[in-house]
């Protein structure tokens, strides 16, 4: 059960108030007709599944009904930050790996069997 | 039987029991007595009950081993009546109450004379680990037979066959600091945090808070430790910011400091909750706690030594022996042999001696034990045998002797002659294992510490461990760790801590412990008598050794192969010993082998507590329309549509007999086709859309065109996901140039509103438009049928003329005196008016319609009739004709697709993908069974050649199928590969009963193909 | 003008109305505790409920002019007029719930629309779609702890706050207009479920229903 900071409500709220909406920052191609079938298929069906830092979109469904982004560690489930729609994350996989040399080790430790 | 003879092992003094009152209880039908303050376990020991169960696999007699949550054997079934049955209760955790009725969960026909024991004895050596997998899995057909037998033998308790009379509930808690475990460390932490003003919760699983301090021989400030406990509890209880939860187990530690606590509120009072002020009290409560900071002060479990026969009743943990004597006033035997690897174990011998019983010997694995407690034992004149261990317990139903010998731990062998010491009790101590279960639930693997011979928790954010849980055992240090944890936790939540003065504890000299996880025997482990590692699951040292020999190297695999640490036990007692034995067999270190993962729940939780109030008619919300009362009174049968209760059909009494569904639906259908029917359509989703860009937004989200829809007009719309698959449909009306009212399917309302918001907030924030749900604000009454106009005209001021109020128009006016919006749209193909009024007026309007409708034959109809009527017209239902893999083109609804709209609307691009362009996609068609009496089965598969060898190629399936009263024939909608090109062809539907139905592919419109009736 | 359709769903004609709890009273009754009660429940039916959408700055001026109270700009804020009969609650950065005495909602909507002119905003009348339940008594907070997942401790939920949150397996708008009172705004179709839940969970406190 996550405890999620809603950037619009300015509070941590219980996970039950939210719906996850998949990977964040998936932009609809501006000119769909100009996409090849493969490009359109990528947009529709292909998503990242990283071990580590992941940017996700959530909606505060039972609350302010606003969509926003969550940067979450997929191993520890720690939420590193949340930010409004249209904003960019300040924490990314790159910034994390630079910040922590030992990241690989601690990820190993936190594995859920 | 006299009183004194009954509680033969009860001491005359000492303990926290009330000897002035007597409680009677039964165990396996036998009547016994105990005192308030007893647990069921202490009362059983007081009465000399040695055998409390039969073991799971070998059916060996088992007695009480521990005094707390780690008890593996004394697992009982509680309940004096059928409805009150509770399985899986640890006798060590169950407070005694008057009339308590308990029985063993294992043992058939009973624990004393156990037939299964024969199987265990005979089969013992034939039941190695993996026995069930190896023996009973083949032939597969026999498993059910085996299973029945094994279940009976295993007897894991049973659930009640009658409804539980008790109430349970959930509490949503939020606090700054949650302290789990109220022993020395926890109380110190709680005190520190509480004084800071932080919101503190303290949960402790026992009847009384205080943990080991309640039975400690150590003093605080020179006084018995329990006096300090009482003082601290008084202070905590007086703090408004502190919630104390005794009898409350923290069972699960979930993400982001979410902890579930299981509070047993009345289980110490009786097997059903008492009634107070006419209300049955809440029996158990699940606290769902979101804590800012968690302090794990869960203490440590003593590790038993693993030696031959260590499961015979009379083998106990050393600490348990002390607890029974000091807390419950029970000495669980007369003659004690203590086998220990450390100083802590000595306390059991000292307590035993002080209770006036005989200590035969202390057998210490260390060559030269030294320390204050060792000295105290010597001073008491207790014989200490060093460098040795109890290598085997003798006896079958109770220990009769201990076989003691010198051992060489490094070489893992018995190194001296064996002597046999007569005794009835063997206490053992192999040191402590910190209780790391909760920390482990978070996914963090623990860390091995050689200095304490145990794993300590590795911690995630916002949690600390202190005291025994952190491998810290000296009382003074434990208190200091507790205070520090409390201060840190409060500070992390922004609360500064006032001073906390620690009580002075004795500084004891202690010798270091020796690592002893399995005691060697004269015979090799695999051939010697059984040495139990996990008593609850009957896992032996030999079993673990065998598993490693068979190639199991990962501790998780060994766990699954041997069942070590399974089930309710969760490895509390045996896990470390088992891992250490595996490590020795694999020639690896303990940290290399690692631990298994402990999972919630820490101890069993009743279903009642898990379910809380979400049961019976509160199991799930039932949504009602404003007209529900009328439907109920009219005798409607209801259908669940999402959470809504919708009238399904309204059976009438005809000649004293209630109509069948088929009869009622046929009557309702004909009433609509021939006269007029009425449907409560209030459940349809309604979304109010306002803004200058509303029209543009609709054009992007719907497949069809909206730019020309005039004020006063309605239009059917189809919605796709961006993969081109139909996701919802409904009618949207233009209320004003910048104002639309969208309707959605009943089940899709919330999802579609979220869908609109998704696109608006993420992709098109530049569009000026707002969406608000008005589903519940409006009640919708659909009158449909040739007489609908006449009926409405009687009670409305609207101009209903066919030329001024056309099909697909909406008008506002008054209906039955109530302001209404009326939409001339049709889902039946008949002349239809959908009357929308504010829901608070709905009942009046509905009743007025009936007052005037009788002469027109106004007939209420439900969802089943609605389905038949719309299917006769070939109107789809999203979710029935579609399943997320159907495009508008598959449905033959190209008329509803705006191919040339300027914006590439949601779903458009996907319609030109190669897969959506395939010619053999499943396409919607009508099916007319060759035999009109046949109603095809919904979901039935369609084949082209019924003579084809099995497996037959399947080309589609039936999506909707009904009997049509107006056609007097069965008919169906179906999806068939390339179906649009197959009109007139015959297909076959082979059924499970061997029959094959024949049907012709026809148009989806079965009735009024030109659509004239809705325009009249 | 915003070019939206307005529609007064009420009539002055004496026509029987049914609150969202009408069915529930018939089905479950309105329990009265025998002795002193620690918990009271009262439905405040037939009030005017409007959903206001738009930019805070745009709406604030109009709301102040028309209603005499300022639009709460802070998340979770609830403001009331002096009488306590009119309130505005923040629901989201561009959404507010206005509750006024029954019958005032349509004139209010009309005035706001006039005031707002051609600005981009939306007003939706939802008066028939929800009802307001009022809880009071010393056990109210405990009852809420059994019912909503949001933290109702006074340190987190002072007077003048309101949130949308989970109510058992449904949803609610929960607000605290005064020290003694809590208000639950529940959707009409869920009202019976919510009512039955409150009666069941409130039984141990001797819940009293005032009709």
From TrEMBL, chain A:
The keyword Transmembrane helix does not apply. It comes from the Bacteria. Keywords: Oxidoreductase. Transmembrane segments: none annotated. Its EC number is 1.5.3.1. GO terms for biological process: tetrahydrofolate metabolic process. Residues 89-113 are annotated as: Disordered. Coiled coil: none annotated. It holds the Pfam family SoxD. GO terms for molecular function: sarcosine oxidase activity. NCBIfam families: soxD. This is Sarcosine oxidase subunit delta. It comes from Vreelandella titanicae.
